Amino acid sequence: MLEKLLSEIRQCRHCEPNLPLGANPVIQASTSARILIVGQAPGTKVHQTSVPWNDPSGDRLRQWLNIDKAQFYNKNKVAIMPMGLCYPGRGKSGDLPPRKECAPMWHQKVLDQLPGIELTLLIGQYAQQYYLNNKPKTLTETVKNWQQWAPAFIPLPHPSPRNTFWLKKNPWFEEDVIPYVAKRVHEILDRI
Hints:
With 192 residues, the protein is α/β, with parallel strands linked by helices. Helix content is 41%, strand content 10%. The strands form two sheets. Strands 2-1-5-6 form a four-stranded parallel β-sheet. The protein has a two-stranded antiparallel sheet with strand order 3-4. The radius of gyration is 16 Å and the shape is globular. The two termini are 22 Å apart.
């Protein structure tokens, strides 16, 4: 059932007229996955390779989680579903926001096929706005209050190199949040 749904998603062309590089939905999932990563949308490198988080942001994310590529790309352990499944295009200060059609169209259908998810990492403001109730107005406040949603959900800033300034300005994140996240990820993966 999930494989049929993933095939349908990968063939989706709903937004193609609005996508500068065309449609190429990128998603990774298996019914046995225990961790779900909900990010923003693929960048150009991910669009070209169809491999999620296949860029410097992914390198930093794997570093935060303290897992290697083999674990990260094992769909039986880690599901990856961005808010927008296709590259949205470039704006004035980086990539455009994820297309708004994707999450309402696909997310619940996928979640219904992932019964074993124990931890959902919500990366960036778009995922946090969609999934968290009573979310503070800023990403910084949301991430600071991560314990409000743990252990099921953990809001994280985007690991993009563009956020290096944010990370330097908020050292508490790498001192307090990252050790908890890495420990929780390993607790889950070690049981599989």
